Amino acid sequence: MTQRYARITGWGKYVPARRLTNYDLEQIVDTTDEWITSHTGIRERRIAEPNETTVDMALHASRIALERAQVQPEELDLIIFATSSPDYFVPAAASLLQNRLGAAGVPAFDLSAGCTGSIYALVTATQFVQTGAYRRVLVVGAEKISAGIDYTDRNTAIMFGDGAGALMLEASNSPTGLLSFELGSDGALWDALYCPGGGSANPFSEKVLANREQYLRMDGKRVFKFTAKTVTRSIQNVVESSGLPFSEIDYMVPHQSNVRIIELLTSRLKFDPDKVMVNLDRYGNTSAAAIPMALADAADQGKIAEGDHIVLAGFGAGMTWGTAVIHWEPTKPSEEQAILVENWPIREALQLQANKVRAAVWSAQVTARTKAQEASMSVMVPFYTWQRKRKKAKAQQDEENTDQQQG
Ligand code: UT7
């Protein structure tokens, strides 16, 4: 089978209108703009309105990505939704998005890997395209993380914000999209960033609410240390497995949580800081939305161009990490349209299956007809024989009666 790739053909970003600045936070918790800026680089973040949900934001970002790729919602084959703040525990946010997009019947599922979710989703989506199972997959990362933040806890209140990002992936014959990746998880660090209450281990109760256990808790120092150690090595691995020399990496889009982490990664890798995307100053840490949002900003601001090789580096709750090298070439060559529509192996495979089903139905019909004919013959043949005999006997009787009358 021809090698398939998943071209990134569309991208979209959405953030809510309401800004929460460091000065606003000074009024809420014991902090200062000076501390937040110097320790994180964040100046403001966006906060969704009470009636604005994660799926609402995802819908905006997805529509922009679909529009850019010129894909209709009903043409989608799959939706993967990375989030840690779904609208409901049940059902998946992906199903709500599928319905709101008007992508009737399209399979959809949520993926939970903390802030690394969108990298896990990108990698998962690419596997579906590469196996030939699906042609068009929408990857979404969206969070209303503010709903899980304790605004009396300065540790987390200063860091997180809301938003959504989406990427459209389409099958391609040329080597583009995801070129190499590394995913990882170190569950021993599960409580470095977690939400103690509301899950099956500690269901909602008055105690949970009284102890504010429904909110996110973070041991920032552990997260920082883990990231500095793991992510630098992971980026080196993933560039090596892409087969590209480091000099061929044009741009880096790291997770947006703290500019000090980004600076540390950049300096350890001896990478040009001007080639690194930073938008956390405006949006804070938007968890699973951060990388697709930052990639969308990089594209919209002309920081990345057709043909670029880009490193994506995510890390977050789990602790999880996910790094990837992607080739950015969103323009679909015209012959690729044909691949997407006509010469698609899955289409041929489905055609084959349809033929097999038709043949099986036809053969079952023939068998049934034959059996019915046999059954009816087993009744009708003795009946016709009896009828023939009866007619013959009657004719004989009639002949005898006539003879008697004449005699
Ligand atoms: O998506 C993954 C998400 N998480 C991350 O990437 C987080 C990674 N970690 C971090 O970004 C940093 O650890 C934080 C920004 C969370 C904290 O920065 P830090 O430099 O590690 O601060 P710290 O916890 O060591 O605290 C230093 C000082 C302490 O005061 P003392 O003991 O030195 O007097 C804290 O009490 O800063 C104080 N402090 C604050 N002061 C004002 C801690 N938080 C604040 C605050 N405002 N918000």
Structure keywords:
single chain; 407 residues; alpha/beta; Peroxisomal Thiolase, Chain A, domain 1; five-stranded mixed sheet; 13 helices; binds oxa(dethia)-CoA
Question: Can you offer a commentary on this structure?
Answer:
This protein has 407 residues and is an alpha/beta fold. The protein is 44% helix and 19% strand. It has one domain (5-351): Thiolase/Chalcone synthase (Peroxisomal Thiolase, Chain A, domain 1, 3-Layer(aba) Sandwich), CATH 3.40.47.10. It is built from 13 helices and 13 strands. It has a five-stranded mixed beta sheet with strand order 1-7-6-4-5, sandwiched between helices. It has a four-stranded mixed beta sheet with strand order 8-13-12-11, sandwiched between helices. Helix 3 (54-69) packs across helix 4 (93-101). It is elongated, with a radius of gyration of 32 Å. The mean pLDDT is 93. It binds oxa(dethia)-CoA. Residues 31, 35, 39-40, 115, 154-155, 158, 193, 218, 220-221, 223-224, 257-258, 261, 285, 316 line the site of oxa(dethia)-CoA.
